[in-house]
Structure to design on (639 residues):
C-alpha cells in the first residue's frame, strides 16, 4: 500500500467520523448527550490530575477537625463520607472505572453480538438454529443474578465484572443484527456480489456489515449504557471490584455505613452521575436510531 | 459456425424442492454459445430463463438442485469444478453477469467506482490506481462521465446504474457476458439507449453475450441466434432470421402473432389463450400441449424429442413436419380461440 493510499484511507476515516458527528449533531438531544458523554470522557482520562484529594485519605476541615459527613462546601464540593473521605475525588476517579467498564464491555459485546448475528443470519439453517437457541438460553437467564453468581464464583475483580456483563449483554444485539442481515442478504446487490465471485466472508464483512452499521452503533451505545447500569447495580449489591472506586461502589459504601438517611449528598452525587451519563448515551443512540429507522425522523 | 463453441450445455435440469412438491423449473436444456455471438433466450415469466442462468453461475437458492450431462467453457468442464476454483477462476473473469434488475445490484453504501475497483482488485493483482484508470475506461465505453465514479448509487438514475453494471461486467474482459433482462424496468427511450450501447460495445469486444428477455422485440433486434423457452424447456432454437421467417413450433408461431407488425397497423393481435403450466411434478407430455391448437394425442402422453431441421434449427415438437400448414393456420384468430 502506498503512502498516498494510506492517507486517502485516513481521510476517508476522518470523513466517516465527521459524518457520524453530523448524524448525532443534527438531533438536539443527541447533541446534548454527545457533549455530556465527551465531558465525562475528559474527566475519566484526566481523573488522577483532576481529583483534588486522595479518595482514600481522611480529610480535615480548616479548623483541623476530622471532616466526617460534611455536606457539600467549597472545600468538599460533593461532601465527605463518615470516614472523612472526599466524595468529589471519589466521583472523579469512579468516572474512569465506569468508562473502562462501559467501553470495554460495550465494544466486546457488540463485536460478539454482531458476529453471531451476521453469521446466523447469513448462513441460516443449522448454524442459525444453534446460535439462536444459544441466544434464547441466555434470554432465559436473569441478568443481575447471573452477574452476581459469576462474580461470587470468580472473585470481585474488574475483569470478571466485565466478563459477566459481556456474556449476557450481547444477546439483544445478536438478534437484531441477525434480523437485519436476513433482510439485507435477500437484496439484489448481494446476489450481484456473489456473481462477481465474492466469497462468503467477503460478502459478510464487505457487503452486509456496512449496511447494518447504523444499527450496530445504536446497539453499541445501548450496550455501553446497559453495562454501566449493571456494573452500578452489581457494585451497589457489593459485587464490584473492591479495589477500584465506582459510582455503584460509592452507593454500596453508603449503604454499609448506615448513614443513608443522614447523608443525602453521598447518595445524590453518584446517582446523578449514573443517570446523567446513561441518559446521555441513550440520547446519542436515539440519534443513531433515526438513521437506522428513518420512520422516526421528523418530516 | 464451424468454430468450437465457447459455452456448451447439455441436458441441464434444475429442480426446486418446495413444500408443495418438486418443481421442475428447467428440463433437459441443451445449447451452445459461439464466440462473438449474441445468443438470445426468450420466454414468458416463469419459463425458467433466470433459473437456467442461476444454475450456470451456481447462484441457485438452497432448495434448488441442478444436474447436467455437460457444461463446458472453452473445453473446460465447469460442472465438476470445485466451488472455490469456480468462484475464483470462472465467475466474473470468464463469465460475467448483468443481473436482473441491475438497478438494485449496486451496494448502496459504497461509491459506484469503488465497487468496480474492489471487484477488479478482488480478482487481479492490480494496484488501486491501475484499477481506477480501468474503471475510467469502462465508464467511457458505456457512456458515463468518469467523474461519476465518486458518486453513490442513489445519485444515479436507473439507466446510469444499468450502464454501471454493464461497465462492471466488462471489467475483466470475460469471454461470456450474461445479461438477464437488461432493459426491464427502464422506459423505452432509455431502453433504446442501453441497447444501442450494448450493440456498440459488441463491436469492440470479443465477448459472447447471452441475452435473456421476455421482450421479443429486443431479442429480435439484438440476437444472432435465439432459443425460445416454455415450461422449462427450449421449444425452438434457430438463427434469428430463420426463427422469424420460418418458425416451426406452435409456441413460436403464437409468440410471433402476439407481436405487433408495423405493416398491419390497426389489426387486433392474436394472443395465445391460457396461462403457463405449473411445473410441479414430473412432466408426462409436451408442456405446451394444453394451450396448443395443433396438439395430437401423442402430445399428452409422450415427451417430444428435439428434432433438427438443419442449419442449426432445432424444434421440440412431434408435428415439426407439418410446420408449413401450421404456419398458415396460426395467423387466423379462430385457430387459437375456438379449439380450446
Amino acid at each position: 500500500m502506498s503512502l498516498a493510499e494510506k492517507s486517502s484511507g485516513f481521510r476517508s476515516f476522518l470523513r466517516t467520523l465527521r459524518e457520524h458527528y453530523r448524524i448525532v449533531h443534527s438531533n438536539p438531544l443527541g447533541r446534548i448527550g454527545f457533549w455530556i458523554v465527551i465531558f465525562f470522557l475528559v474527566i475519566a482520562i484526566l481523573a488522577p490530575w483532576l481529583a483534588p484529594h486522595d479518595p482514600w485519605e481522611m480529610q480535615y476541615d480548616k479548623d483541623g477537625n476530622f471532616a466526617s459527613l460534611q455536606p457539600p462546601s467549597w472545600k468538599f464540593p460533593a461532601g465527605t463520607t463518615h470516614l472523612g473521605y472526599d466524595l468529589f475525588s471519589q466521583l472523579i476517579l469512579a468516572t474512569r472505572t465506569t468508562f473502562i467498564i462501559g467501553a470495554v464491555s460495550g465494544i466486546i459485546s457488540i463485536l460478539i453480538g454482531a458476529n453471531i448475528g451476521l453469521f446466523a443470519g447469513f448462513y441460516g439453517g443449522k448454524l442459525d438454529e444453534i446460535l439462536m437457541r444459544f441466544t434464547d438460553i441466555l434470554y432465559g437467564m436473569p441478568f443481575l443474578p447471573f452477574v452476581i453468581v459469576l462474580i461470587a464464583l470468580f472473585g470481585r475483580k474488574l475483569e470478571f465484572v466485565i466478563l459477566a456483563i459481556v456474556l449476557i449483554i450481547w444477546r439483544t444485539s445478536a438478534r437484531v443484527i441477525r434480523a437485519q442481515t436476513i433482510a439485507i442478504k435477500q437484496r439484489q446487490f448481494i446476489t450481484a456480489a456473489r456473481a462477481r465471485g465474492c466469497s462468503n466472508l467477503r460478502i459478510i464483512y464487505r457487503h452486509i456489515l456496512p449496511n447494518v452499521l447504523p444499527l450496530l452503533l445504536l446497539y453499541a451505545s445501548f450496550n455501553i449504557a446497559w453495562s454501566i447500569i449493571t456494573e452500578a447495580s452489581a457494585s451497589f449489591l457489593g459485587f464490584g471490584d473492591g479495589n477500584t472506586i465506582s459510582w455503584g461502589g460509592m452507593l454500596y459504601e453508603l449503604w454499609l455505613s448506615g448513614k443513608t438517611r443522614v447523608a443525602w449528598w453521598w447518595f445524590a452525587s453518584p446517582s446523578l452521575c449514573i443517570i446523567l451519563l446513561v441518559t446521555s448515551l441513550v440520547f446519542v443512540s436515539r440519534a443513531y436510531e433515526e438513521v437506522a429507522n428513518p420512520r422516526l425522523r421528523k418530516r | 459456425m464451424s468454430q468450437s463453441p465457447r459455452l456448451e450445455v447439455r441436458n441441464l435440469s434444475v429442480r426446486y424442492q418446495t413444500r408443495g412438491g418438486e418443481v421442475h423449473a428447467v428440463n433437459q436444456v441443451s445449447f451452445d454459445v459461439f464466440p462473438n455471438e449474441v445468443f438470445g433466450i426468450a420466454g414468458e415469466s416463469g419459463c425458467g430463463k433466470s433459473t437456467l442462468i442461476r444454475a450456470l453461475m451456481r447462484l441457485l437458492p438452497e432448495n434448488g438442485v441442478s444436474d447436467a450431462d455437460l457444461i463446458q467453457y472453452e473445453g473446460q468442464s465447469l460442472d465438476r469444478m470445485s466451488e472455490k476454483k469456480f468462484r475464483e477462476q470462472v465467475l466474473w473473469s470468464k463469465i460475467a453477469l448483468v443481473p436482473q434488475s441491475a438497478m438494485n445490484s449496486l451496494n448502496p453504501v459504497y461509491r459506484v467506482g469503488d465497487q468496480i475497483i474492489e471487484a477488479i482488485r478482488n480478482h487481479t493483482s492490480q494496484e488501486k490506481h491501475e484499477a481506477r484508470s480501468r474503471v475510467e475506461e469502462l465508464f467511457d465505453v458505456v457512456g458515463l462521465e468518469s467523474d461519476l465514479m465518486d458518486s453513490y448509487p442513489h445519485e444515479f438514475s436507473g439507466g446510469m446504474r444499468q450502464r454501471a453494471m454493464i461497465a462492471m461486467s466488462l471489467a475483466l474482459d470475460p469471454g461470456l457476458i450474461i445479461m438477464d433482462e437488461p432493459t426491464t424496468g427502464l422506459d423505452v427511450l432509455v431502453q433504446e439507449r442501453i441497447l444501442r450501447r450494448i450493440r456498440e460495445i459488441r463491436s469492440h469486444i470479443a465477448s459472447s453475450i447471452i441475452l435473456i428477455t421476455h421482450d421479443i422485440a429486443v431479442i429480435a433486434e439484438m440476437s444472432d441466434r435465439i432459443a425460445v423457452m416454455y415450461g422449462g424447456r427450449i421449444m425452438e432454437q434457430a438463427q434469428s432470421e430463420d426463427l422469424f421467417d420460418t418458425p416451426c413450433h406452435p409456441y413460436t408461431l403464437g409468440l410471433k402473432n402476439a407481436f405487433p407488425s408495423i405493416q398491419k397497423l390497426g389489426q387486433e393481435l392474436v394472443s395465445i389463450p391460457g396461462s403457463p403450466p405449473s411445473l410441479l411434478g414430473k412432466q408426462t407430455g409436451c408442456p405446451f400441449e394444453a394451450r396448443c391448437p395443433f396438439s395430437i394425442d401423442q402430445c399428452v402422453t409422450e415427451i417430444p424429442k428435439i428434432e433438427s431441421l438443419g442449419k442449426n434449427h432445432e424444434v421440440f415438437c412431434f408435428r415439426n413436419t407439418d410446420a408449413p400448414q401450421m404456419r398458415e393456420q396460426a395467423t387466423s384468430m379462430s385457430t387459437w380461440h375456438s379449439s380450446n
User: Anything to note?
Assistant: Chain A is about 75% helix and 0% strand. The mean pLDDT of chain A is 85. Chain A touches chain B through 22 residues (CB under 8 Å). The two ends of chain A are 44 Å apart (CA to CA).
